[in-house]
Design goal:
By secondary structure, the chain is mainly alpha-helical. It has 2 domains: 22-144, Multiheme cytochrome fold (Orthogonal Bundle); 146-181, no CATH class. 58% of the residues lie in helices and 0% in strands. The chain contains 12 helices and no strands.
Length: 195
């Protein structure tokens, strides 16, 4: 307790050796360094190498992604994991990162450490992600796909009808129709509309 009191006195009293300007400048520089390190860490966690660093992702969903148009296509544009699973806006990104921090517990406790465990939880995981995308109006999809930039005349008749109807109604979002676009669908037996 005495150590704590001595430390508090040391921190609480004015500096004997350094001026207020020096301490302010030092705090400003330390803040910039912290901010830079924080943003660098955020960007590292958005890389494909980070996302596929654990075998749970590399051997399951990443393998599925590789056979889709989001991975390889005629235009050479590839979506990486964070493009679809992490919002681009800073505040939304931070909120998503905080939500995703609970996924670390899944890694620690081996919740989906084998293919069998992953398949057993696939539907639950997919439903969480679909609900998240539904709640944010498919924000991550709309970072690349936007109704304002779509040329309905160059789409198939069915796609053109569906997109123009969705645009006009404003009730549907991308994930309502595009489940399973980048990953295999879970077993959907018993779900209304999928049987």
């Amino acid at each position: 307790m005495n150590k704590l009191k001595r430390y508090w006195k040391l921190v609480n009293r004015p500096s004997v050796h350094f001026s207020l300007g020096f301490l302010t400048l030092g705090g400003f520089i330390a803040g910039i360094m912290f901010w830079g390190a924080f943003n660098t860490a955020l960007e590292v966690t958005n890389t494909e190498a980070f996302c596929t660093g654990c075998h749970e992702m590399r051997n399951n969903v990443y393998q599925e992604l590789q056979s889709t148009i989001h991975f390889s296509n005629r235009s050479g544009v590839r979506a990486k994991c964070s493009d679809c699973h992490v919002p681009h806006n800073w505040t939304d990104k931070i909120a998503r990162k905080m939500q995703a921090s609970k996924e670390v517990w899944g890694k620690i406790f081996g919740t989906i450490s084998t293919r069998e465990k992953f398949e057993a939880k696939r539907r639950e995981l997919a439903e969480h992600e679909w609900a998240r995308l539904k709640a944010n109006d498919s924000l991550e999809c709309r970072n690349c796909h936007n109704f304002d930039y779509m040329d309905f005349t160059r789409q198939s008749l069915r796609a053109s009808e569906m997109h123009s109807t969705a645009l006009a109604s404003g009730e549907k979002t991308c994930i309502d129709c595009h489940k399973g676009i980048a990953h295999e669908l879970p077993d959907m037996s018993g779900v209304e509309g999928w049987d």
